[in-house]
């Protein structure tokens, strides 16, 4: 395979982005979990007020990976940061430096924008954890992720107490 090129996604990449999201879901053993549609991605990523950005990695002009990210804000730092929601490289391109190229580009974006940090979450069984450690990322063991969604989110928004 040839040289890896990383570029910003455009609205024309939405089908590819959704294919990568579904590929990541399959890798994470949740192949039927993706509810996002091309229309959702077009609306939220490429409209007047984008809620996320995407980088596309190409080898020989063929999309082989992506990084899906958005800004966060640290009250302690008093500065924004980048949250990497998803990173995915197709199986045949793994080990070629594509993931590293995506993360280097994200780090450069964070530095150029004056952001204080780049953060991500990874499943405990994911073999990419060692890759992230080699890049200098540190696991935040003292912070535990919490999430609310679906009916529980609706109930909380309505002020209902959960048992």
What this model shows, in words?
- Helices cover about 30% and strands about 25% of the residues.
- The protein has a five-stranded mixed beta sheet.
- The longest helix has 15 residues, at about 100-110.
- With about 160 residues, the chain is an alpha+beta fold.
- The chain has a single domain, classed as 3-Layer(aba) Sandwich (Aminopeptidase).
- The model has no long low-confidence stretch (mean pLDDT about 90).
- What is the CATH topology assignment? Aminopeptidase
Number of helical stretches of at least 4 residues: 5
Classified by CATH, the class is Alpha Beta
Overall SS class: alpha+beta
Strand content: 15-25%
Structurally, the number of domains stands at 1
Please list the strands of the largest sheet in the order they lie side by side: 1-2-3-4-5
